[in-house]
Write the structure tokens for this entry.
Amino acid sequence: MNNISRRVGAFLDSITYVSPRYPPYVGGVETHVSQLARRATKLFDAVSVITTDSSGHLAPAERTKDGVFVYRLRAFAPEENYHFLPLSGLFKQLRKSNPQLLHIHSIHDVTGPMAGFMARRSAIVFTPHFVGRINSGLGRLFFPAYQSVVRRLIPRVEKIICTTHFEADLMASRFPEAGTKIVIIPNGVDAEFRDEHRWTEPAEPRILYAGRLEKYKNVDKIIRAFSHLQEKHESLRLTIVGRGPFKEELQRMASSLKLNGNTEWLEGISRDELFTLYSSSTVVVIPSESESMGVAATEAIGVGTPTIVANASGLAEFVQEGLAQPIEPPVDAVKLAARIEEVLENPGSYSPSKTKSALIKSWDEVAEATFNVYRSILV
């Protein structure tokens, strides 16, 4: 499963991760937390995750095959943003878990920060996944007041883990008191899937997007760019993997542009199936201008797939490292179509497979760096 080994004298008591969502929900934060949690069982006697379930269809408690205890609290989540849950339930579960270390995630939701205030005996690590702006209408209304809450939380936190220099700079400028606590550890790639699914140019061209389907992700721009490209590349296909509040509107757009025959919509697929798609696509496109790093971009680049990203926020660091092709903001369909066209002409020349970068690490490496932060606090 992984190469994190137990160290003599370094086996710790308990850790609880708090995240607004957790698999089977799909997204960058969900992947990040699940990859750490499954490896933390090699370091801690007890590993648990407290998360939410807005659907009411998931088990309220379960133990995964990796030995992680997952507790799901029912929450109200308008448009799948901001998970409002009974604070009494969160407090009860935290008291029951009573972790030696509490690792809270996502500044963009209330679940993690609220847990940080409730924990009285736990050392706290905070991974904000901060992008500097709030992309939902509810969030823009709520976040200005919420920032003062986060500001009061930071003195309680031992360390703040950011995934990019972009995010670290944002946190330090928005919350100056966070500056000395910040450590930078990037997202990772599943080494097992990366090694099994190396990119080769497919016989039939395919554009791939994988991620949340929200308006700020700019997936509508991909669909419009695809419509332009269809005139010249009749065999070109578009595959969109993910779910979110913008999905139905995107599907209506594809239908109105008469793209249904060449557009594939997937969700709930396995990690193996996702990496198969990465390795068999001509190009992966991640055009959001608001990302702390972007797990899908990291994974696509890790397997060597030509990747196009918005040259903004944390994604710009992939461009700076020569790992991805840029779309200058503001992203629009015309710019995207032109850049995709360049890649389609000679995909092999845009593969990042031969470019080495500290940005592309395995999840084992990311977990070990994170666990070293834990050890610096607890040991």
